[in-house]
Amino acid sequence: MNPWHDLSPGEKAPEVVTALIEIPAGSKTKFELDKVSGLLKVDRVLYSSVHYPANYGFIPRTYCGDHDPLDILVLGQAQVYPLSIMRARPVGCMRMLDQGEMDDKVIAVHEDDPEMAHIHSIKDLAPHQLKEIRNFFEIYKGLENKKVEVEGFHDLPETLKIIKEAFDLYKQERTTLLKQSESGHD
C-alpha cells in the first residue's frame, strides 16, 4: 500500500480531508514519504534551531507543481506519530515559493479535536500562531542556503480552490505518477 495513491482523500473532501502525517508537531526531523515504497524516510535533520509548528504531512491523491502531494499543517492539541491518519478541516493556506517553485501549505485544524471546533477560518486563529508558522517557513532552510519566500495567507475560498486543483492535477497525472512510483523514478 502506498498512502499517496491508496488512501482516500476523505468522504467530505475538500471541506474535511484526510491528512497523512509525516512529521509530528515539535519535530526537528524532516520525514517524508518515499514515493516508491510508501514508507517514511528521514530526509534530514533541520539545519536551523527550529521545529515544526504543527503536525505536517500531505493530502492523499493530490499533486502540485512542486511534483509532490499537497502539503498540510494540522493544528490541534496533540502531537501525533508519523504515518498517522487524521481528519483535517482546512481553514486557510499559506502560499510560498520554495527555491522558485510554488509550494502551497494548507492550514487545517484537527476535525476530531474539541479545542479546534470553533475554528472555521484562518481569521479564527491567533495572529501570533500565524506569525510563528510564517517565521518557521521563512527561516527553516536558511542555513542550507536555500531561498524560501512566503507570499502570504489566504482564507478558505482560495484554499478550497487550491485543494480542488491539486485533486484535478492528480487525476490528470495519475497514470504517470503510478508508473513512476512502481519504477522508482521521480
Automatic annotation (TrEMBL):
CDD domains assigned: pyrophosphatase
Subunit structure: Homohexamer.
Key words, A-Z: Cytoplasm, Hydrolase, Magnesium, Metal-binding
Subcellular location: Cytoplasm
EC nos: 3.6.1.1
Role: Catalyzes the hydrolysis of inorganic pyrophosphate (PPi) forming two phosphate ions.
Name under which the protein is recorded: Inorganic pyrophosphatase
Reaction catalyzed: diphosphate + H2O = 2 phosphate + H(+)
